[in-house]
Design brief:
The protein has seven helices and eight strands, in the order αααββαββββααββα. The protein has 263 residues and is α+β, with helices and mostly antiparallel strands.
Length: 263
């Protein structure tokens, strides 16, 4: 065959493309399970960091197999809900077949569309509940997990991550423990237009549902603020009942204190 002909070039190119495609497919097939295992372990680390199962540094020093065991030992129940707030499915918590809703972008789109969302709820032993959030930062997606105390009202912990935020600025949502710690003890004001406020000098208002934005990371902070509120609104019908009973309990305590003072 004439190696300078167009026919030879087409045949040669086709063969190379087929071989490369086959090699890539084989590599993907071999690496797929390992990549999936790494992704699952990473999600569990982030969730358990928010829930306070172990310090973040310890979780990231723990191998994947032990992370699965740690999750199985500490999780009590996992299920999904719809935007109507009602439970619509269970997620397996058995160590050998742990189920997660780890792809949050499709759920974010469903929330914005107002239909078709399957939102995960992870309840750990001791009553701490973890839910995800997802949104857009300055350069790419941002996401995280927020842990709620048994009252479904007070934040027990949080963990945030990003794809490509600016190092030293927006990336602080992940890199700086002090930022995550600011959320502990804050509240989610279910039923309000903005259940949570992450803004410049927000804490100066004294409101319990506020955290100051990161200085120099305006767009990342705005994106995280928006993500928190969009996802909190999506969970509102499910957790708002818990917040309602919490408010009743607080009111009852106040009434008791008032009566005691009068006596």
């Amino acid at each position: 065959m004439n190696t300078n002909s167009n026919v030879y070039t087409v045949i040669y190119t086709t063969i190379v493309v087929v071989i490369v495609s086959a090699v890539l497919a084989f590599v993907a097939m071999k690496l797929g399970p390992a990549q999936d295992a790494n992704a699952k372990a990473e999600t569990l680390r982030q969730m358990m960091s928010a829930a306070g199962v172990k310090p973040t540094e310890e979780l990231y020093a723990t191998n994947n197999a032990d992370i699965l065991q740690l999750y199985a030992d500490n999780i009590e129940e996992a299920y999904t809900i719809g935007l109507n707030g009602e439970k619509n499915g269970d997620l397996s918590i058995a160590q050998d077949k742990i189920e997660l809703i780890s792809k949050l972008k499709p759920q974010h789109k469903a929330i914005l569309a107002g239909e078709g969302a399957t939102l995960p709820v992870y309840i750990f032993k001791g009553g701490v509940t973890v839910i995800p959030i997802y949104g857009a930062g300055l350069w790419g997606p941002i996401w995280g997990y927020v842990a709620l105390n048994p009252d479904c009202y007070t934040i027990a912990g949080a963990y945030f991550d990003h794809e490509s935020e600016t190092p030293g600025l927006g990336a602080k949502i992940k890199d700086e423990p002090w930022f995550r710690e600011k959320f502990v003890g804050k509240t989610i004001e279910w039923g309000e237009e903005r259940a949570f406020k992450l803004d410049k000098n927000a804490e100066a208002t004294g409101a319990p549902n506020t955290v100051d934005a990161i200085t120099g990371a305006t767009m990342t902070s705005k994106g995280l603020n928006e993500a928190l509120n969009i996802w909190f609104k999506a969970y509102e019908k499910h957790f708002g009942v818990g917040a309602f009973f919490h408010a009743l309990e607080e009111h009852a305590i106040e009434e008791t204190n008032v009566n005691a003072e009068e006596e």
